[in-house]
Structure formats: structure tokens, C-alpha cells
Amino acid sequence: MLDFVGADNNYQCAFCNNTTDGLNKLASALVESEDDIILATRIEHHSNDLPWRERCKVVYAEVDEQGRVIYEDIERLLEEYDVKYVTVTAASNVTGYVTDVHRIAKMAHAHGAKIIVDGAQIVAHREFRMTTGDPAENIDFFVFSAHKMYSPYGGGAIIGPWDIMDAHMPEFYGGGTITLVGDDWQLYNGYPYNYEAGSPNYAGIIGLGKAIDILKEIGFDAIQEHEQVLMKKLIDGLKEQPDIILYGDCDNIEDRVGVITFNYTTANTTRIAAHLSDMGGVATRRGAFCAHPYVWRLMGISDHDVVGFENCTDAETPGMVRISLGIYNTEEEVEEFLRVLPLAVEKAAEDSQIQGLIPQF
Fold first, then answer.
1. In the chain, is it the N or the C terminus that has fewer CB atoms within a 10 Å radius of its CB?
2. 114 in helix, strand or coil?
3. Average pLDDT for residues 163-191, to the nearest whole number?
4. What angle do the packed helices 220-239 and 331-355 form, to 10 degrees?
5. CATH number, position 306
């Protein structure tokens, strides 16, 4: 496991249920006071935002007009605040942007902070290494999910420095976390056992290990090349569609993994996604993808206007449609998607007129 993420013997791995579970455990262990300051970005998934919000003060670096993280804003916040931890995603689940986490690590360490990386969206797409030739650029904590790597649900890992993890225990107690219990006292075990309360998910751990073996066998260079070919073909086709809105930089896609989001000015996104499924068996996701502040920024919707939304799954609440590409997708599937999409949009536009749904863009 350590070898897979380029971690050396100073690190140790604890298994968890998924990235959300792992980040919550980290937050409950590492935050020592509600006055602690965490630096995040507006690109984050809720799982790398809410666990910190609920426990301490969070400051956020902004994104630019195309949705990329503004690194200069991270530096500004590090200079302005006494930041304890910087927490950032390695790749966005909305635009697929790959974050330069080693650049951020160097900035964080220069200001006495440590860095936590949400690795959920990177592990199946790009090689990731926690350590580099420059110790200042090393990643302190890395969390990821097994199911993002085509393994069964219910597995994941937290990887961090043994000494820090051993000194901080999450608010998660029970069997496996202790060495001895008396009538009114208990002795807790060290890391990683104090992060793994309860019976381990042995099947999930074995599945995760096998998934790692297969991804390494295929090779991340081959995976990246395959995704880039599919993305370019898909984006080129989408650009030809009338009334479409594409999010993120669709000309320079080298720093994007296989995630594309779009909208239409003429049809409701809920109906588009439904008809893609019904008419072509195409599985997409519609909504704000558990990254609401980021999605609202990309769509140009103010925080003031968001307050009036019913909820993110309501058909009349603004949202996007997301296409996710992986190692199993083919160019023929991209072509079929581009064939079905105009038909789904046409049908969705008819539905929107009949039902009075507001076009979401």
C-alpha cells in the first residue's frame, strides 16, 4: 500500500471505509481546538470541507474563471493566517483538474503547516507519490477510496506519518482500538489500530490490493494516454453541439482527468440525464456533485441566490450533467454518446416546455 502511493517507512497505513470516512477520522483526530485554522479551496468535495467546518475555522483559497485553484491565493492565506493544516483534493470531481499538491505542500511547510490530500479522484487516473526528491514537497496525509479504483465498495486507506497519527486518536472507539480495559479505565492501542475500530473489512482490503495490482499492471502512463484520447474526442464532439455550455478549460486538457461537465441553455439537466439513460443506456450524474460552492462558482450563481434553492436534487435547482471516463471506456462509446445526446436534449427540451421547468445553465 505504501509503495502504491510512493510513501516511505516514515508512513503507516490505516484502513477505512472510504475517503469520507477517512477524512472524518483525520479531522476528529488532528483538530485540537475550534480555534485551529484549516486552509481549504473552493474546489473541494464536501467530504474534504464539512468535516473541518464542523470542528474548527476554515479559510478558502479561490478558483479562477475557468475553475482552477489560484495558488497565489493559497500563499496569501498562509501569510495572513496561522494555518495548521492545508487540505486539498488531488483532482476535482467536477472539472477533473489535477492539483499541483507538491507545490502546495512546499508552500504549506514553509509556513509551518502540514498538508492533507483527498486522493479519491486521482488514484484510478494518475500515478501519485507522497514523497519526492525534495522533502519540503512531501505530502503528509493521503486518503483514498477503493471503489474509485474499480474495487468493491467499503474500502479505503488513510496514510500518514506514524508519529503524528499515533499521537492523535480519532473520536471512534470500540473493539480493536484498545489493549486493556478495566472497570473505569482503558488503555488504547497505537496507530493504525486506533483508527480501525470494529471488525475489519477483509474482503474490501483484499479487493483494494488486487485493484492496485491491476492498475499497476496496466500502467498509469497508458491510462492517462487512453483518457486523453477519449476526452479530446468527446470534447471536440460536444463543442459542435448547439446551445451547449462546457465547464472548465476545454482547450488545454493535459491537467484534467476523465471528467467533463456540461449544460444546455434550452433544456433542464435533470431531464437530459434521464433521457440519456432511457434512450442510450448512458450513465451520467446530474446535480452539483457534492461540491456545491465550486459548481455555483462555475455556473456564475451567487451564494445569495443559492439560499433560495429547494435542494440540490430538485429538478428546478440548477445543476450540471457529468460524464466520467475510465479505463473501460472506448472511442466507439464516445461516438454513441455523441449520437444519443442531441436526441436526449431535444426530448428534454420538450419536457421542460410541458412541465414548465426552468432551463438550468
1. N
2. strand
3. 92
4. 40
5. 3.90.1150.10
Mean pLDDT of the chain: 94
- Interior/surface letters 251-277, b for 16+ CB within 10 angstroms, e for the rest: eebeebbbbbbbbbebbbbbbbbbbbe
Query: Active site residue: 56, 250, 290, 312, which one?
Result: 290
pLDDT (0 to 100) of residue 356: 60
- φ, ψ (nearest 5 deg) of residue 286: -120, 140
Last-in-domain residue among 217, 246, 272: 217
Distances (CA, A) of 146 to 27, 134, 158: 20, 29, 11
Tell me which residue range forms the domain holding 229: 219-355
d(C-alpha 317, C-alpha 177), whole Å: 44
**In contact, 260 and 320? CB cutoff 8 Å:** no
**How many domains, the chain?**
2
Distance CA 180, CA 169 (A): 16
- Give this prediction's pTM: 0.94
Last residue within a domain, chosen from 180, 199, 217: 217
pLDDT of 281 reads 93
User: Is residue 317 very low, low, confident or very high in pLDDT (cuts 50, 70, 90)?
Assistant: confident
Residues 31 and 63 placed together within one structural domain of the fold = yes
> Could you tell me if 60 and 88 lie in one domain?
yes
Over residues 88-112, mean pLDDT: 98
Whether the predicted pLDDT of 352 surpasses 90? no
Does the annotation mark 16 as catalytic?
no
